[in-house]
Amino acid sequence: MRRFLVRLVINAIALWLTTLIVAGVRVVAYEPGDTTASVLTFLMVALVFGIVNSVIGNFVRIVAFPLYILTLGLIALIVNGLLLLLVEWISSLIGFGLEVDGFWWGVLGALVLALISWIIGIIVRPIVGRDELRR
């Protein structure tokens, strides 16, 4: 459970930093001026992103394994961009909001999100413990 919460917070922070870096990716809170609502919105979007990435993302990676080999992994950029657009669609159905301006913004946002999440994971690993994040 602790690992799940740490990954959730890491993804929420990475998503927040991604929205600051990539102009075409935004998260809109229920009440835009309320800090608590903004933090909860980022946590909810990170939760949806984690569920989509672990369930649908893993299925797509298994099915598209030959394409990953054929393109030397570059198809992962497209898949991650599509997964980010899927998270946008799901969050808009629920009523809170990740907004992506288009497909290529989604690809760029997914790339930046992955890099930032990776960097934060490297920083947090010595603090939390290596075994805690790998399970």
UniProtKB/TrEMBL annotation:
Keywords: Membrane, Transmembrane, Transmembrane helix. The chain crosses the membrane at residues 39-60, 67-91, 103-128. InterPro entries: Phage_holin_4_2. This is Phage holin family protein.
